[in-house]
């Protein structure tokens, strides 16, 4: 089930890409995925801030 990930990313304000070009869009998407994963780690207490 993948849909919650897209919902969480949209809730954080990522509704469309702000860059142009496949390489830039791919980089922007990966950055949003990293932010999502760090937030999950922080939520579950695995990351010390």
What does this structure look like?
The structure is a single chain. The mean pLDDT is 84. The chain is built from 2 helices and no strands. It has one domain (5-48). With 49 residues, the chain is mainly α. The termini are far apart. It is 63% helix and 0% strand. This is Transposase, IS4 family protein. Residues 2-41 form the Transposase DDE domain. InterPro entries: Tnp_DDE_dom.
Give the helix/strand layout:
Blueprint: H1 3-11, H2 22-43
InterPro entries: Tnp_DDE_dom
Domain Transposase DDE: 2-41
Protein name: Transposase, IS4 family protein
Would you kindly provide a brief summary of this structure?
With 49 residues, this protein is mostly helical. The protein has helices at 3-11, 22-43.
Proportion of residues in β-strands:
under 5%
Task: Count helical runs.
Answer: 2
Which whole number gives the mean pLDDT? Answer: 84
Order of helices and strands: HH
Poorly predicted spans: none
Number of strands: 0
Whole-Å distance between the termini? 29 Å
- Biggest sheet character: none
Helical content band? 55-70%
SS-based class = mainly alpha
Overall domain count: 1
Radius of gyration: 12 Å
Q: Categorize the overall geometry.
A: elongated
